[in-house]
Design goal:
Blueprint: H1 2-5, H2 8-20, H3 24-50, H4 55-74, H5 82-107, H6 112-124, H7 146-155, H8 157-169, H9 173-199, H10 201-204, H11 212-219, H12 228-234
Helix pairs in contact: 3-4, 3-5, 5-7, 5-8, 7-8, 8-9, 9-12
Length: 242
């Protein structure tokens, strides 16, 4: 009872003392439950952030999951490393935002939601989502090269990246290996897409509120998977299992 009144530090000390007497199996079970509880919040937050429009609601849930994970680490439980958690969920969020946004344009270009969001986005930053909208045989953006990027990347890289990140969060060796592959593929994608935008600058930057500078301000976010590459190549691969 006195320990409980002593605050969070005393609670953690008491928790550590109790866990020293636990069996190995009991420790693993408690660690698994703590990891699962944190992941529930992290998955919910990532799902909402990945829709882009609901990101403001997902961030508090995501931060709650991070706090639970840090608390479990402080009291000595065997949970997933924080860097693995942050990189894995960051890559899932990045791939989900790309998939949701481009899928909305690819298969829902005639919906009211797409007309409002994508036309508004095009008017602000990228006229590729405003110029001759819904005038191709496939609905949505008509900018040169846009549909090829959408079809190719939704069906390959972004879905592969989400699957790899899930395996990575499960501490699987194949998840780590495929995350290396898809993050390097992301470099190729980013360079190619930027070059495509530059080639058709007269289409994509004409008549928008924030032209080149505005496009770079939001597109910088899409280099976030690059940040995982140094870690993926330097981490001890033995922490991942078959």
């Amino acid at each position: 009872m006195n320990l409980r009144r002593g605050g969070s530090g005393a609670n953690e000390l008491a928790g550590n003392q109790i866990r020293e007497g636990l069996s190995f199996d009991a420790h693993l079970e408690e660690s698994r439950l703590a990891q699962r509880q944190a992941d529930k919040w992290l998955i919910s937050g990532s799902f909402l952030i990945g829709t882009a429009a609901l990101g403001i609601f997902g961030l508090p849930l995501f931060l709650r999951g991070i706090w639970l994970l840090r608390r479990a680490q402080r009291i000595g439980l065997s949970v997933r490393p924080m860097m693995v958690t942050l990189l894995g969920y960051l890559i899932i969020i990045d791939a989900a935002i790309n998939t949701v946004g481009w899928a909305l344009d690819l298969v829902a270009g005639h919906t009211l939601l797409a007309r409002v969001l994508l036309n508004g986005w095009g008017n602000m930053f990228d006229a590729g989502y405003f110029w001759h909208y819904n005038e191709l045989w496939v609905g949505g953006a008509a900018g040169p090269g846009e549909k090829a990027w959408e079809v190719g990347l939704i069906l390959t890289v972004f879905t592969m990246r989400i699957a790899a990140a899930i395996g990575f969060l499960q501490m699987k060796r194949w998840g780590h290996q495929w995350l290396v592959v898809t993050c390097w593929m992301g470099v190729v994608i980013w360079v190619g897409y930027v070059f495509n935008m530059t080639m058709y600058a007269d289409v994509r930057y004409a008549g928008v509120v924030f032209p080149v500078i505005g496009w770079w301000l939001y597109d910088i976010f899409y280099i976030t998977p690059f940040l995982a590459i140094p870690y993926l190549h330097t981490v001890n691969r033995e922490i991942f299992t078959d």
